[in-house]
Amino acid sequence: MAACATTASETREEEPNTGRRVPSAPADAATDAAPGDADAAPCADCEYFPEACSAEVLCPNGPFDPSAPGGGFDVRTQVNVIRGRSSSDVWAAGALGALAHYDGVSWSRLDPGNRETLRTLWLPDSAEISFGVFERVYARGAGMPTADAGPSPDGWTVHSPVTPPTYRSYDLQPVSAWAAPGAEWLWCATRAWRPGWTTGLWRMRVSPDSKFEFAHGASPQLCATLPCSHMTSVHGASADTLWAVGVEGATMRITNADGETPTIKAFNSQTFDALLGVWAASDSEAWAVGAKGTIRHYAGQALLWDVVSDVPTIEDLNAIWGSSAADVWAVGNAGVVLHYDGKVWSRVKVAGLGARRPDLTTVWVSADGHVWVGGQGVILSLGGKP
Questions:
Q1: Which domains, and CATH codes, for the chain?
Q2: What is the percent of the chain where pLDDT is above 70?
Q3: Which residues does residue 178 pair with via DSSP β-bridges, in sequence order?
Q4: Among residues 144, 153, 26, which one has the least CA distance to residue 80?
Q5: Which of 59, 205, 246, 247 keeps 20 to 30 A from 235, CA to CA?
Q6: In angstroms, how far is CA 2 from the centroid of its own chain?
């Protein structure tokens, strides 16, 4: 159980049910997110969804604009992940090969050469890497392994990674990934269709013989003891200390994460609800969010995360990110966005959506006031600006 501490040396899919302790498969195919503009029911939350954009309000900005270079994404497309190197180098990936880049001026749509759903982004200094399943990795840039296919019109090549003998593709679904700048290994949180059968924590690198290589981050034997076979999110403030969260409140601290033998330790999150996102402000402070408005805070205790009360939503919170301990953002279902200013969590208004209340699935912050939010048919930024 997550309360015990132990040490050890995306294709058409169903839409998740709100509030489940164990989340269903993600609703990230282009046909999964309905536009939802025809709902004529009385508006009970209009104060959070104004018509007009303003500087302190999140507004649409991104590759859904039909005038964007390469054309706009279909409004039914779900954005699964947004990451960047800086405020002028931002990437978004999602359903059915959706891929776009922001250069500080405008968004451009890119062609990875396949209509496969993408759920991860790894951004080394001189390359870009994305995948939705372990069998195929899409990459472009310097220092990449020899390709199995490609390049696409925008320079993306396809690679078949090396996997360990215990790997079974039908058991796993990558959900999220993270590598600190300069790290050798990209850590991946995966959903296991048969929890307890395999690990939910994997690592990928470019091997010494120049191939993409996946390896266990935590062994299947360890995840038969600790609750780490069904993980949802991973993040760290450094290459060697990471946090990973998952279903039933699973919360794991990973040390020596970029070394040969990572150590996994279970912490008590004080919840059995699914945790869906984690962000580390430092090696000694982190935040996690999850089902039914759950928020947890780690502030350096030996084993325990703190319960955060007075959260202004009961919607599932799907992702969290920040620029500092006093600038943290969380996003969730039904268009919910929350901000923490170092003292209190508050609701953030979202303009320009009409009657739509899209589920929001990803958030990335480059600096104070520079936040990007993505989800079902939308990318948002403050004031509609970067």
A1: 50-382 (2.130.10.10)
A2: 88
A3: 187
A4: 26
A5: 59
A6: 22
